[in-house]
Amino acid sequence: MNILIDEIGCPNQATVSGRKYWIRTDFRISILFELLMQDSGLDAKEKVRKGLGLYYPAIPDDLSAAVDAALWFYRCGRVETTQQKRAAARRGRAQAYSFDHDAGLIYAAFRLAYNIDIQDIGYMHWWKFRFLFNSLPKDCEFVRAMEYRSIDITDKMSKEQKDFYKKMKRLYALPLTKEEDNRQAAIENALLNGGNVAGVLEWGDALSEGK
Domains of the chain: which residue ranges? Predict the structure, then answer.
């Protein structure tokens, strides 16, 4: 679909096993979906169940195809190639923003950039929201925060640059997840009490890999 030339506009249905199913398209639903996927307190099956319930008024019988269609909608019709997926995996996927933690910054950015009051607006299609979100100007604080979180501090930088970006990373750091917080506490405890730091690190890596 091309939003610039297609008369139908942004989709309000998803195709699952050859059938059309209505989906909830308001941007708030997809924000809730993203926050759900980031919830470390839920297992994969619970995320799938709740995620499908968010998007579909009537959940299709073919759950696997329903998940694929929901993800297609969430990604605004974008399909990643195998090469793109591998490139993203090599780069890593450090979280640059949080719809929860950054809610105030995002609200202000939309108000300043587009004069849109997100809190008061009755409805906006997720794809339209996402297109605007991805095009927020670089001079707004929210975009600067994402850049600071994502930037790699390298040896090619001057000491002043390194110190500045380290300070900004601390200032705009996102809260740790429950697992990350527990892991950090375990590392600090091991360091203070002469424990096995290597063991803590290995345990944390195994958890992150689902072992």
Answer: 13-79, 91-171, 178-208
Residue 54 tokens read as 């968010």
Cα gap 20→11, rounded to integer Å? 11
In angstroms, the CA 83 to CA 69 distance is: 21
Class of residue 117 by CB neighbours under 10 A (exposed 0-12, middle 13-18, buried 19+) = exposed
Tens digit of each residue's pLDDT (9 = 90 or more) over 74-100: 999 887 666 656 555 555 557 899 999
The angle that helices 197-208 and 178-193 make with each other, rounded to 10 degrees, is 170
DSSP string, 91-131: H-------TTTTHHHHHHHHHHHH---TTT-S--BHHHHHH
